[in-house]
Design brief:
Elements (H helix, E strand, L loop, with lengths): L14 H16 L4 H13 L5 H15 L5 H15 L11
Length: 98
């Protein structure tokens, strides 16, 4: 049900992946899948050793928030991008951005 594309063992989850998870959660909810069932699917990610425990907790939070309509998939994506931008070190003068 919930899949992570291109996530290797203990790969850091991307904002795009969080968006995909949130969107899939909304779709599952709209089809009548229970929150309990969707959350159980996050266990498959843990068993497959695809995520760190911290990222797994983040996925569960995204599932909960998108399922209950607390935040939209787009809001989740925007917040993730803002957090990543805030934690990036500033570029020194004279260096180019990657």
């Amino acid at each position: 049900m919930l899949m992570l594309s291109a996530a290797g063992a203990h790969a850091e989850i991307t904002c795009a992946q969080l968006f995909e998870i949130a969107a899939a959660t909304v779709e599952l909810r709209d089809r009548g899948t229970s929150l309990t069932t969707v959350l159980k699917n996050t266990e498959d990610l843990r068993k497959a050793n695809k995520l760190t425990e911290q990222d797994l907790q983040r996925v569960r939070q995204v599932v909960q928030e998108s399922f209950t309509r607390a935040r939209s998939p787009f809001e989740i994506f925007q917040e993730c991008e803002a957090q990543k931008s805030a934690t990036r070190p500033p570029y020194e003068t004279g260096t180019s951005r990657p």
